[in-house]
Structures are given as C-alpha cells and as structure tokens.
Amino acid sequence: MEPIAPELLTALASGTAGAAGQQMWTSLRDLVRRRTDVEPNGVGELTALATAVGSAERAALAERLAQVLAERAGRDSVFADALRAWRQDAPDAVRTGSGDVHSEVSGGRQQTVIQARDVHGGINLGNHGG
Fold first, then answer.
1. Which of 6, 94, 96, 98 is the most exposed place for a label (fewest CB within 10 A)?
2. What is the residue-averaged pLDDT of the chain?
3. How far apart are CA 25 and CA 15, in angstroms?
4. Residue 40, preceding bond cis, omega within 30 degrees?
5. CA-to-CA distance for 98 and 118, rounded, in angstroms?
C-alpha cells in the first residue's frame, strides 16, 4: 500500500484543508480508533498531531503517523482496505504541496497588494475612499 503523504496529514490536522479536510480528518480519526487493541494503532500519533502547534513539530508528527498507519495496514488487511477507501474518498481540492510562492511587485503606485494561498471565504478590503 502506498504510504499517506505526511503533507496531507499536516494539512488535515492543521485545518488548512477547509471543510472537506475537516471531514476527512474526522473520518480518519474514527477509522484509527475503530480498533485500539493493536500496536501501534496510531491513536497517540493522531492525537499529538491534532494538538501540535509548531510547523516543525507537525511535520515530524505527520511523518510518524504516516509510518504507523503504513505499519498497521501491513499487519491488518481490514484496516488496509478501509484506509485505502479513505484515501480514495480524499477530495482533489485538498492541496498537499509546500505552498512556496514568490511574487514581485514593482513600478507604479500600488496601494493594495494581496498574496494568499488557500483562502476559504471572502476577502474584504474595506472602503479605501479617495
């Protein structure tokens, strides 16, 4: 079974994947908690990732969770099938790239410049009057 990308797990756990990502995270949590009598089961790693605050900590925890899920899937064919189905249900809208962006604005007299990624909702610039 192809391992789950740690970047996907990080996006889901941190909430940057929007409403669809929250649903995916909840369904993964439910899947992992279905049977906790196996070791490692991923519950501790999942919980730690959900509460991590720093990006470096999240990255390390996501990597560990991906490893544990792969190990568990290798030992439990029922879990492997369920995890495979979970991955197939993952919406294409969930972005897992690093998100690195380079923008350069020059010349003219710009008053408002916005650079954003993964905006979920509107952007209100207010009334600039003039």
1. 98
2. 82
3. 9
4. yes
5. 12
The per-residue pLDDT for 46 is: 95
> N- to C-terminal Cα distance for the chain?
59
Q: What number of other Cβ atoms are within 10 A of residue 71's Cβ? A: 16
Residue type, 82: A
Higher local confidence (pLDDT), 97 or 82: 82
Q: Tokens standing for 81? A: 């099938």
Q: How far apart are alpha carbons 42 and 65 in whole angstroms?
A: 6
The string of pLDDT tens digits covering residues 17-30 is 778 888 899 999 99
pLDDT of residue 25: 92
- By the 8 A CB rule, do 88 and 23 touch? no
If you count them, how many residues does the chain have? 130
Residue type, 61: L
Angle formed at CA 54 by CA 65 and CA 32, multiple of 5 degrees: 25
